[in-house]
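User: Some background: our group keeps a shared notebook of sequences we're curious about, and every so often someone picks one and asks for a predicted structure to add to the entry. Today it's my turn. The entry only has the sequence so far, pasted here. Could you supply the structure so I can complete it?
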Amino acid sequence: MGTPRSSREDQAETVIERLHDEYPDATISLSYSNRLELLVAVVLSAQCTDERVNETTPDLFETYESAGDYAEADEEQLAEDIYGITFHNNKAGYLKGIGEQLVDGHDSEVPDTMDALTDLPGVGRKTANVVLQHGHDVVEGIVVDTHVQRLTRRLGLTEEERPEAIEEDLTGLVPETEWQEFTHLMISHGRAVCTARNPDCEECVLADVCPSERDDGDVDLASGEPWT
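Assistant: Of course. Here's the predicted structure to add to the notebook entry:
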């Protein structure tokens, strides 16, 4: 079993240093060319792979170029245009509602505050953090997606389960200058090595400091559940 570091601060520092070396080019994998496209792509990415979103958005962005285009869209047609995205019917409603609110309350521009963003349909704190960081160069917190949830618990950086509580723990451990990249490092490692099922602990650069390292007992200590 891996041995935890003497403190979560030390653990966070080690994790960041090693993953920086392992994934020096880690960054957002969604494709977009402006803030509206970024917002739309992140909304679509909820419970959907970035690869699927990137397959869908080129045609979508050609058809819907402005907030007004989404506001005026036929919702059924919009749902058809994003068919293949998980929960496409619900997300079509979100996109139309976002377009309407941007037109009515934000001069058709994507807002640059957490409160204004999370007031938009289908936009939670995770989505808002991504848009702020990559669209406005504003870093207010750490994006907590499923990879960040899984890895930070396995690595002993938090015992919380709710994304908001995990983010609160992480912002107290991770230097603010690393908040944005931390998420990308977690996502890169979560996709490549520390997968939800059958993580490749033998190839993991964090195995010796990971309290959840897979052992003969086949138990994930972070969750108490058997590895599968």
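Suggested note for the entry: The chain has two domains: 8-26+145-212, 35-135. The first strand starts at residue 219 and ends at 220.
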